[in-house]
Specification:
This protein is mainly β. It has one helix and 25 strands. The chain has one helix spanning 195-200, and strands at 3-5, 12-13, 20-21, 44-46, 53-56, 59-60, 66-68, 82-83, 96-98, 100-101, 106-108, 112-116, 119-120, 125-127, 142-144, 157-162, 167-169, 173-177, 180-181, 186-188, 191-194, 203-205, 212-215, 220-225, 240-242. The strands form ten sheets. The protein has a four-stranded antiparallel sheet, with no helix packed on it. The protein has a three-stranded antiparallel sheet with strand order 1-5-6, with no helix packed on it. The longest helix has 6 residues, at 195-200. It is elongated and about 110 Å long. The N and C termini lie far apart (114 Å). Disulfide bonds join 133-176.
């Protein structure tokens, strides 16, 4: 006589060896076991969604198995009038792909798509757009924080950053409006105070023994005469100098 039992069987899959490990049924006084639950480890799923096994005279039928989930993705979605540089046939979970539009069309949406659990995030569109902007304007000693595109849709914005020791003046974010970018910021020069310059003026740093320092625009630097030297005409206030876009008036001692 066959007894059909609907079983939600608990199956723990060993991460270390990839082998199934089953547990004996617990002994229940004054009761019977009718259901147990199947739970696959993270990254695994039940093959064919099987959740029923049969209890026959000679034991249980073949139990279900937990199979590893394929989290990789194939080629990214095809976007009309767009291409993906260096496209691959297969991508791993977490990999990204970046679209570029052809024929100077505007890109709407996120240029990058990401492979997540075997599926791609939503791709962008490439279509005609009025009031588009070209590449953001270049600035001295700075650049935008993202890879530049050939064309930007109206309302798009980018941010700038300056090289080390340069001071950003203005709004770091610019926006495309009516086919024109808003005013970009400037990266103001830093002042380089070297040992050679200080020796030429017979001065040294008042509060530091460093032989070379970088001072940002609008920062103040204080000097004093080297031992055995005295101020040469310079007023006392000249020994507290301010850096102005890479330039600094040095006091002199003799």
């Amino acid at each position: 006589m066959l007894l059909l039992v609907k079983v939600i069987l608990t199956l723990w899959v060993s991460w270390a060896h990839g082998q199934g490990r089953t547990c004996d049924f617990p002994e229940i006084k004054h009761g019977n076991i009718y259901e147990v639950q199947i739970v696959c480890n993270q990254g695994y799923s039940l093959a064919n969604d099987q959740d029923v096994i049969t209890c026959a005279e000679h034991g249980w039928s073949t139990p279900p198995t937990c199979s590893r989930i394929n989290l990789s993705c194939g080629s990214p979605p095809t976007v009309q009038n767009a291409f993906i540089p260096n496209q691959k046939p297969r991508y791993r979970h977490g990999d990204t792909a970046r679209y570029e539009c052809r024929n100077s069309l505007g890109l709407f949406g996120n240029a990058e798509v990401t492979c997540l659990s075997g599926k791609w995030t939503d791709p962008p569109e490439c279509k005609e757009s009025t009031g588009r902007c070209g590449r953001p304007p270049a600035i001295d000693n700075g650049d935008i924080t993202t890879d530049p595109l050939a064309v930007y849709a109206p309302g798009s914005s980018v941010e700038y950053q300056c090289q080390a020791y340069y001071e950003l003046e203005g709004n770091r974010r610019i926006t495309c409006r009516d086919g024109q970018w808003s005013e970009p910021p400037k990266c103001l020069d830093a002042c380089v105070i070297s040992e050679e310059i200080m020796e030429a003026h017979n001065i040294e740093l008042r509060y530091s023994h460093a032989k070379k320092i970088y001072s940002r625009t609008n920062d103040f630097v204080e000097f004093r005469c080297r031992q055995g030297y005295y101020p040469k005409v310079s007023p006392a206030s000249a020994f507290r100098a301010q850096c102005q876009e890479g330039k600094l008036e040095y006091p002199t001692c003799a």
